[in-house]
Amino acid sequence: MTLVLGIESSCDETAAALVTSDRRILAQAIASQEEEHSPYGGVVPEIAARAHAERLAPLIDKVLKEAGKTLADCDAIAATAGPGLIGGVMVGLVTAKALAMASDKPLMAINHLEGHALSPRLADSDLRFPYALLLVSGGHCQILRVQGVGNYQRIATTIDDALGEAFDKTAKILGLGYPGGPAVEKLAREGDAQAVPLPRPLVHSKEPHFSFAGLKSAVLRAHDCGEHSDADIAASFQQAALDCILDRTRRALSGMDAVSALVCAGGVAANQTIRAGLEGLAAEFDLPFTAPPLPLCTDNAAMIAWAGLERLNAGFAADPLELKARPRWPL
Ligand code: KG4
Ligand code: ZN
Predict the structure, then answer these.
(1) Are residues 180 and 88 in the same domain?
(2) Distances (CA, A) of 7 to 31, 65, 320, 323, 327
(3) How many domains does the chain fold into?
(4) 44 and 150: one domain?
(5) For residue 324, what is the DSSP state?
(6) Do 90 and 138 share a domain, yes or no?
(7) What is the pLDDT of residues 25-45, one digit of tens each?
(8) Boundaries of domain holding 261
(9) For residue 299, what are the CA distances in angstroms to 16, 112, 267, 315?
(10) Can you tell me the ipTM of this complex?
């Protein structure tokens, strides 16, 4: 059994977790910065970096104590090294380097997107490579063919906004605060998904890419015209977003080599309507559908520890202490 300490600090969640190679999360802790950022309607990088710096060490201490472990029990220290807000990423990475150095353990520098991409395998021991992955978060919107650890074929990406960003902007327009995804989902339950005519950008286009900027502008116009209830706008937006996702993912699957499953990960994968829609789409292709449990969808450290475990298992070498944090780092 291998044990890895994971650290996540790339956006607005400070998180630490201890995960074993037999898929047990021994302890995990997340400090959300929602309160600090919500007055600004989005994440303020400087505030985020300071909050990570204040909270990370006590969080790590807490998970170690909770699990009754010390650094000496860990086989590696894994931390997000990018992509993300550079100040926050540096806080997590430099902490991991210090811990790795002090305990003489290997440092595993993890691409945050790889954390999301492999997270479904932490929850589902039956999930085998290769699988088709819709990775939908606040910063990313991609379809990948996950072929193995460190082996990702990117099939599609967004040409403008990420899907989570569209949810967050819709929430801002409707005055629902930040983060917007869960609030839009909740309000949408009370609305009519057909009430507001909204565009479905790029639907039926040949390449499976995404675009959400036009949808966001249409939401703003629908709100400003004053003819629709907020609930109808939320429901119609969510439906339009789902239609785009289903069409684009269908297109991607049609052109993709065989896969074992359709998988959804990233913060937006927490959305029940989107999960249900994707489950139906997977059935069209005779594929099982899986998505991690909700706490593993949004940013967390268990997925970073798990990516570290997967990399160790696959024989990847430890990363050097000179390694730099990367604000941009495509998979
Ligand atoms: O993966 P994540 O925690 O952070 C990034 O790596 O970006 O994703 C956060 C994004 C936010 O845009 C948030 O609004 C969205 O995921 N999100 C949701 C839901 N929960 C979180 N979007 C739609 N429905 C949800 N239930
Ligand atoms: Zn994320």
Answers:
(1) no
(2) 12, 16, 17, 16, 16
(3) 2
(4) no
(5) P
(6) no
(7) 999 999 999 899 988 878 899
(8) 129-291
(9) 11, 9, 7, 25
(10) 0.99
